[in-house]
Amino acid sequence: AQTVTQSQPEMSVQEAETVTLSCTYDTSESDYYLFWYKQPPSRQMILVIRQEAYKQQNATENRFSVNFQKAAKSFSLKISDSQLGDAAMYFCAYRTWGETSGSRLTFGEGTQLTVNP
Amino acid sequence: SAVISQKPSRDICQRGTSLTIQCQVDSQVTMMFWYRQQPGQSLTLIATANQGSEATYESGFVIDKFPISRPNLTFSTLTVSNMSPEDSSIYLCSVAALAGGGDTQYFGPGTRLTVL
Hints:
The structure holds two protein chains of two kinds.
Chain A: E1 3-5, E2 10-14, E3 19-21, E4 24-26, E5 32-39, E6 46-52, E7 60-61, E8 64-69, E9 74-79, E10 88-96, E11 105-107, E12 111-116
Parallel strand pairs in A: 2-12
Antiparallel strand pairs in A: 1-4, 3-9, 5-6, 5-10, 7-8, 8-9, 10-11, 10-12
Chain B: E1 4-7, E2 10-13, E3 19-25, E4 31-37, E5 43-50, E6 56-57, E7 68-72, E8 75-80, E9 89-99, E10 102-107, E11 111-115
Parallel strand pairs in B: 2-11
Antiparallel strand pairs in B: 1-3, 3-8, 4-5, 4-9, 5-6, 7-8, 9-10, 9-11
């Protein structure tokens, strides 16, 4: 079974600075998806970024980028120019590639990010 | 992407009663998922609901406790039966949809359930 580990329960960053959240996973599969979701106090799960395992290029979305190291099974999220609105719980998630797998997501335990003004 | 709504957004219920949570999607989707998020914890998949077939439950979750309906491709319900305080959680509906050339899972706003 796949597992996802986030080793940082809490992180903090100064506004306008850069922060990196860590995620590692364990799988025997070669094709899969990886995601970062953000959950603010409103509890809405918001997709931040997606990475397909077959793509060597790291995904980017505006101020958010990932460092995907497939061999090391590492998938970290970098937030640049941090803003107060970035404060939230961040979850790393893994999804198997094929439809027959059921598309279920396996989540890490989350990292609570605080942004200090 | 997909826009998902859930009803109710929150509820406070008495022990031993049941609550049905509704999930509505703005487009037709094959798979819908129900997750539970206990206080201070991550998300755990309860079951996968496909239209026209019985839901598939994850280990630790049973149909008698969490019956699910999926009458069409845009709607599903999850019932939390015979509730106890341990059922106090956020329950989230999710769907898989294509976006940006890939398969992505989107979430509803969640239902915060408190059982007294």
